[in-house]
Amino acid sequence: MTLTLADARTIITAAEAKASEIGQPMNIAVADAGGNIISHVRMDGAWLGGIDISINKAFTARAFDIQTKDLGDNSQPNQQYYGIHASNHGRIVIFAGGIPLTRDGEVVGAVGVSGGSGEQDQAVAEAGAKAPLA
Question: Where is this region: Disordered (predicted)?
């Protein structure tokens, strides 16, 4: 089971609405069950540097089936995942804004958001993750 393009568009629409509500343009990426990007949007005015970050947050969330903020908490010095950010050819992101997406208890993809503070990225990703899927 994986996400479809229609699912990705629904997730992005919900995330864009939250980004607009808080007044912060964002990069929003949605990955499928294999960690491959289905869709990405860069809102007008969002940072160019956030494109890769949002894509890699979605990949990270799916690759490890964990929110990137939680992975970050566990990858600090003396923690079990210290140094993980250097794995997977440097694609691993260990700060807020990446969330695995589940359907019937199974991970079917992930959303990654970049463009604001960690709290803003997380809030926008959470809005996307809460979008009702078909």
Answer: 114-134
As a whole number of angstroms, the distance between CA 54 and CA 134 comes to 24
pTM above 0.90, yes or no: yes
Domain residue spans in the chain?
5-129
Yes or no: say if 71 and 94 are a contact pair by the CB < 8 Å rule: yes
Assign 99 to helix, strand or coil: strand
Q: Which backbone phi and psi does 122 adopt, to 5 degrees?
A: -65, -45
Beta strands in 6-134 (DSSP E): 27-32, 37-42, 98-103, 106-114
Strands 27-32 and 98-103: what pairing? unpaired
Q: How confident is the model at residue 133 (pLDDT cuts 50, 70, 90)?
A: confident
| Superfamily of domain 5-129 in the CATH hierarchy | Haem-degrading domain (3.30.450.150)
Convert the pLDDT of each residue in 31-40 to its tens digit. Answer: 999 999 999 9
